[in-house]
Amino acid sequence: MAFIRHPIARLAILTLVSALASAQDASKPFDCHITIGDVKYDLTSLEGEHTVSRELSVPPTTIEDKVTFNLCKDLERKSDVPTEDQCPEGTRACLVRTNRKEGHSDRVFSVIPIANSSTDAVAYDRLSSPKGLDVTFAGYSYPSVLNADPIPQFFHLKLLCSTETSKINFTSYDGRDLRLEWSAPAGCEFGSPSDDEEKPDKGGEGDGGDGSDKEESVGSGLGYFFLL
Fold first, then answer.
1. DSSP annotation of 204
2. Contact 154, 114 (CB under 8 A)
3. CA dist., res. 135 & res. 115, Å (int)
4. How much is the pTM?
5. Contact between 120 and 141 (Cβ < 8 Å)
6. Cα→Cα distances 178→53, 113, 118, 157, 170, Å
7. Is 29 exposed, middle or buried (0-12, 13-18, 19+ CB in 10 A)?
C-alpha cells in the first residue's frame, strides 16, 4: 500500500475532501432549521402545503396568482392535476397564473417553480424591528414575454415573531420576486444570549446608527461556494 508522505500532497487531498463535503452539504434539501450567530429558528411547525392567492383585474379578464408552498419539504405531485399544470419535482414553491374571462373556461398560462429545495438556494436575514426572519428561496429562471432572457425567480417570506399564527398575506409579485408575509411563533428566535450579555449597540461605533431592521444577513449566498 502506498502512503502519501509529501505535505503538499496531503494538503491537496484534505482540500479536495473539504470541498466535496461542502458541495454535498449545500445540495442537501433545506430542513427548516436555521442558525444565525448565537440564535436559532425552527420552522418545522410550519411544515405542510400552504396556498395563498391574489386577483388582478385586467379587463376584460381577471388574473389569479396562486402560490402553493412547503418550506420544509418538496411539493407533492397531484394525480388530479394535469402534469403540465404542475411544477417539476424538487420544488418548494409553485406559482400558477390563471386567466379568467366570463363565459370562457379558465386558462392556466404560467406555471413557475419559484423556489427549489437545495440548501444553497436559501438565504435568510434576522429582523429586529419587528422581530422575525426574512427567508429567501431561489427558484428557476422563467421565460420572459418582454425579452429573450429568462428571468430568475425568488420566493421571499417575511416571517414575523408572534404568539399566534396569522393568515398568510400575498404581498406582491413583479415577475421576478414573490413576497409573502406571515406571523407565527416559528418566527421567534431561541438560544439568544440573556439581556445582560447583549453586546453594545453598534450605532455608537461610527456606523451612523441608521436603525435598519436587518441585523445580519447570512445563509449560503444562493449558490456561492467557498473552498478553503
1. G
2. yes
3. 11
4. 0.72
5. no
6. 11, 11, 18, 8, 8
7. middle
Cell numbers at 63, concatenated: 388574473
Q: What is the pLDDT of residues 148-182, one digit of tens each?
A: 789 999 999 999 999 999 999 999 999 999 999 99
pLDDT digits (tens, 9 = 90+) for 176-218: 999 999 999 999 998 754 444 444 444 444 444 444 444 444 4
Q: Is the dihedral of CA 207, 208, 209, 213 positive or negative?
A: negative
Cα torsion 193, 194, 200, 202 to 10°: value is 40
The grid coordinates listed for 218 are: 447570512
Cell of 95: 406559482
The position carrying cell 413576497 is: 179
Q: Do residues 40 and 189 make contact, with C-beta atoms less than 8 angstroms apart?
A: yes
Q: What pLDDT score does 139 carry?
A: 94
User: What was the pLDDT predicted at 148?
Assistant: 77
Alpha-carbon distance of 111 to 34, in angstroms, equals: 29
The answer to whether 182 touches 155, Cβ cutoff 8 Å, is: no
Judge contact between 25 and 119, C-beta under 8 A.
yes
Q: At residue 145, does pLDDT exceed 70?
A: yes
Q: Which three cell numbers stand for residue 179?
A: 413576497
User: Which one-letter amino acid corresponds to residue 175?
Assistant: G
